[in-house]
Write a structure and sequence with these properties.
Length: 940
């Protein structure tokens, strides 16, 4: 030990000697350079030992590069650039020197040199003063510890006095022993930091014997630590010593803390350890010894009879909020699971409860950790109190920060989802996930992945398999048992209340249609090709067809899967409808036969069934009409159509009343079987039936006018017959025939233009638009929409819609007037033929008189057997009566027709304006409305 001490002293002396006596180039050139004396050398050695024996530590980080840069900046700032460069060169060599014999702690050397330099500058700037506080002035200003005043004032007493004498005499061995003794005293003294503590005490480095003596000296130093009194006090009692601060050797501070702890125990009837344990019980929904659940207050409370500080009571109440929230969440889970067998909780509700239970499991783990920490006693309030592994109320509040946020959120979700289920529950939970707090956002996403798992599985199963796995009615697609023809329109629909908010309305419609397409192919079309299309869709979307392939937060993947599945399955469905079931061919067949587009077939059918339809409706045989229909098909180009299409065309007799003719009840129908009846439903076929009846009646009117024309057509026989008549009868016959001819022309003009408008402006134009939309259709809904638009266009443009009801009634009134005209024309020309038969040869009279006629008038039938004068008289009367009847019909027809023309501009369809232009292109009827009278006189 002695050898080590001697070696340390020798090193110190050598260091001081190098710092003081090593010559430099400036000293050689300057003979007056400063050369320290022996006394200055001894003082420097004492100064060095004072530094080395002190317990001062730097307050900055150990960084040698930063320290070197600081020294260079200081030299450069002081105007010593050359010194700064020299220092930089020396430091570079110093820092690169490593290995044996080198200095490891280079930063400490730099810091020592910098501190010595700073201390010298401080001493040069300060004037010596007897009022100096010695150690305090130097330490407080950031410098080094110093001796008090001078060696003369401190040379007789104290440890450093002895050390100084030893150093002066060259006795470094004893001096170093004094340094070691000083270090032992330093360990027993308090640090400088305790100076500022109210409970801190001073312990000086003198040889004190008793505790009371130390306390008196400390008290005197504390009271006289400022100004001259402090300097004098220290100079008298501790002259020549080093003032050091150490911890209290008598644990005075700990004693004070124990007194403080005893005071706290007196104020608290219940210890904090018990309260912490009760709070943990409350957080598990269990009543503790003191903290119990109050039903009236609906909270965990600490009874007022328990004596605790108000701050502690408030903290307990805040901490027990977590228990109240846990009680709510746990109660919801228990209640839901208890009523599961009896009531429809639903798969989404079960997943929600499972997710909550998982979160509570993590919560239980936290409580288990905290329970383990409660076994450690809470230490007294001291410096090391924060480092122990114990649990206090304040620490518990920190532990409960994050669980309280999660539990509060779960309680809010429980309140929101009590009466919800399925997609509605998932949507309500999703609304709470829109939060800016990352903790809340992550928690909600984790919860929603569990909750939405059954819902996304239902979507996957519906889109890829067409299976509706919804036992508890939680899915936003509802199915109901219907007939095959109503499967697409009524079998499935969206349940808006169960549509979650993270699925848009358009995406929901696409999901609904995709599943419907699969079921339509499987049930109605008996096709299995959709399975391959679904597999291709899943592969294109990058998802799997297995369960669990989709989840919450993967909305883009869901949209991609639905889009790909819908595109492929809808395309396959249209291919099946167009190719396998020939949808376009059936639409064309309906147009040709029900809409009377096959001209030769319609004309032949009307010719052969006309005589039958003239009979009463109750006497007509539907089987005979069916045979006539087969004859019309075989006699026209319809025979070349597909046999499957011709087999679907049938005769239908509508319900009839007494007095109805066959024309009023005859119609054709087309048998649209599955899956075509999805498009051609009963309501659609009833609309086609209305259109057929309208077109059939229009054709009948046209056929009737053609029959009238055949009867009115002049020939050579009629011309010879006119030459034989008396002049008065002849004039009357010519006038009546001209009236009939003019009225026929007017009616024929109307019917021809109306028929042209219906066939070309309505049927052909609508069919052209329908064909274009069929080509552009992407799914069955587009196809249905295109057909509905096609049918609606025909109904509205044909004046059969609701908005054209009044105009339709006027139109049918015109049809009735035309049929009345046909009846009167038949009577007129039958009378003329009978008159002709009475005035011609007897042989030809018999053949003409026996001509069958169902509309022969009673007036003309009485002519047989009468004389020539009587025949002439009765012929004149007959012609005058017929002329009056024709005038009445013409007047009524003109009035009704003008009303019809006047209503056309008020219709909303633009195409009806073309009908008005065609009917009144010469503005004849527009001008006739301005004339005082209408009728045959105007026409003549």
């Amino acid at each position: 030990m002695g050898d080590d001490n001697q070696r340390v002293v020798d090193l110190v002396k050598e260091l001081v000697q190098r710092l003081l006596y090593t010559s430099s180039p400036s000293n050689i050139q300057n003979p007056n350079a400063f050369v320290p004396t022996q006394q200055e050398y001894n003082q420097a050695v004492k100064y060095s030992i004072r530094i080395l024996s002190s317990r001062m530590t730097p307050s900055i980080a150990a960084d040698d590069s930063a320290m070197a840069e600081s020294i260079k900046r200081r030299l450069a700032t002081a105007g010593k650039s050359s010194d700064a460069l020299t220092f930089a060169d020396l430091y570079s060599k110093f820092s690169l020197k490593n290995g044996p014999g080198s200095i490891n702690n280079k930063w400490a050397v730099l810091y020592l040199l910098k501190t010595i330099s700073d201390d010298r500058k401080i001493r040069k700037n300060q004037f010596p003063s007897t009022n100096s506080n010695g150690f305090f002035d130097s330490a407080m200003s950031g410098g080094l510890p110093t001796l008090f005043e001078s060696d003369e004032r401190s040379g007789s007493s104290g440890t450093f006095g002895k050390l100084s004498k030893n150093l002066s005499a060259g006795g470094f061995n004893s001096g170093f022993d004094d340094v070691r003794a000083l270090a032992d005293n330093v360990r027993n003294l308090r640090g400088l930091g305790n100076l500022e503590n109210n409970r801190g005490d001073w312990s000086l480095g003198a040889n004190t014997d008793t505790k009371s003596g130390n306390m008196k000296k400390l008290k005197g130093l504390w009271d006289n630590s400022r100004g001259l009194r402090t300097s004098e006090h220290l100079g008298k009692q501790y002259s020549g010593g080093i003032l050091m601060v150490s911890k209290d050797p008598e644990n005075i501070r700990d004693m004070a803390y124990r007194e403080f702890a005893d005071l706290i125990k007196e104020e608290n009837e219940v210890s904090e350890v018990i309260l912490v344990r009760d709070v943990l019980y409350a957080c598990q929904g269990i009543d503790g010894k003191y903290v119990k659940f109050d039903e009236k207050a609906d909270a965990y409370v600490l009874p007022d009879l328990v004596k605790v500080p108000r701050a502690t009571r408030i903290m307990v109440r805040k901490l027990c909020e977590l228990g109240w929230l846990f009680r709510k969440v746990k109660g919801y889970i228990t209640e839901s699971m208890d009523r599961f067998p009896a009531e429809d909780v639903g798969t989404v509700g079960q997943a929600f409860c499972a997710a909550l239970q998982d979160e509570l499991s993590e919560y239980y783990k936290l409580l288990a950790v905290l329970e383990a920490q409660t076994m450690n006693p809470i230490p007294l309030v001291s410096e090391n109190a924060s480092s122990g592994n114990y649990l206090s109320l304040r620490r518990l509040s920190v532990w409960f920060t994050e669980p309280t946020v999660k539990m509060r959120l779960m309680a809010v979700l429980v309140d929101s989802c009590k009466v919800l289920k399925g997609g509605a529950m998932a949507g309500a939970i999703h609304m709470h996930a829109q939060h800016g707090d990352p903790l809340v956002n992550d928690f909600m996403k984790r919860l929603l992945r569990r909750v939405c798992s059954p819902l996304f599985e239902m979507v996957r199963s519906w889109v890829l398999e067409g299976e509706l796995e919804d036992i508890f009615a939680e899915f936003f697609v509802l199915g109901q048992p219907v007939k095959a023809e109503s499967l697409w329109r009524e079998g499935y629909r969206l349940h808006a209340a169960m549509l979650p908010t993270f699925i848009s309305q358009s995406l929901a419609q696409q999901i609904l249609r995709t599943g419907k397409s699969i079921n339509f192919l499987r049930v109605c079309c008996e096709d299995q090709g959709w399975a391959d299309a679904a597999t291709e869709a899943a592969a294109a979307a990058g998802t799997s067809t297995r369960r669990g392939g989709l989840g919450y937060g993967e909305t883009d993947a869901l949209e991609s899967l639905v889009t790909e599945a819908a595109k492929r399955i809808d395309r396959h469905l249209l291919d099946v409808m167009y190719k396998q079931y020939k949808f376009k061919e059936h639409c064309l067949a309906i147009k040709r036969y029900l809409l009377l587009g096959q001209g030769d077939f319609v004309q032949y059918l009307m010719d052969i069934v006309g005589p039958e339809l003239n009979e009463a409706a109750n006497t007509i045989s539907s089987f005979k009409l069916a045979g006539l229909l087969e004859s019309a098909i075989r006699s026209s180009n319809a025979q070349y159509d597909d046999p499957d299409i011709l087999d679907r065309l049938r005769v239908k007799m509508m319900p009839h009343n007494t007095g109805d003719k066959g024309w009023d009840v005859f119609s054709l129908e087309y048998d649209a079987r599955v899956p075509l009846n999805t498009v051609f439903t009963e309501s659609v076929m009833s609309s086609y039936l209305r259109i057929f009846n309208f077109l059939w009646k229009l054709r009948r009117i046209e056929h009737a006018l053609i029959g009238v024309w055949k009867m009115m057509k002049p020939n050579c026989v009629t011309s010879r017959f006119f030459s034989k008549l008396p002049h008065a009868v002849k004039l009357q016959l010519i006038l009546t025939s001209r009236k009939c001819q003019v009225l026929w022309d007017e009616m024929n003009h109307f019917v021809s233009n109306l028929q042209y408008y219906i066939m070309f402006e309505v049927l052909e134009e609508s069919w052209s638009e329908f064909s274009k939309e069929l080509e552009a259709a992407k799914d069955l809904d587009d196809l249905l929409g295109a057909h509905e638009k096609y049918l609606y266009s025909i109904v509205e443009k044909s004046l059969l819609g609701e908005r054209s009801r009044n105009l339709n009634m006027v139109l049918f009134t015109l049809f009735d007037l035309i049929m009345r005209f046909r009846s009167h024309a038949d009577r007129l020309y039958e009378g003329i033929y009978e008159l002709q038969s009475r005035t011609t040869d007897t042989s030809r009279d018999k053949a003409r008189v026996l001509r069958p006629s169902s509309n022969r008038s009673s007036d003309s039938g009485t002519w047989l057997g009468e004389g020539r004068k009587d025949i002439t008289r009765r012929a004149g009367e007959f012609l005058r009566n017929m002329g009056q009847d024709i005038d009445a019909i013409a007047k009524e027809y003109s009035s009704v027709f003008e009303g019809f023309i006047s209503q056309l501009p008020m219709q909303q369809h633009v195409d009806l304006k073309f009908l008005m232009f065609r009917l009144d292109f010469t503005e004849f009827y527009s001008q006739s409305q301005l004339r005082p009278s209408t009728g045959v006189k105007v026409l003549l």
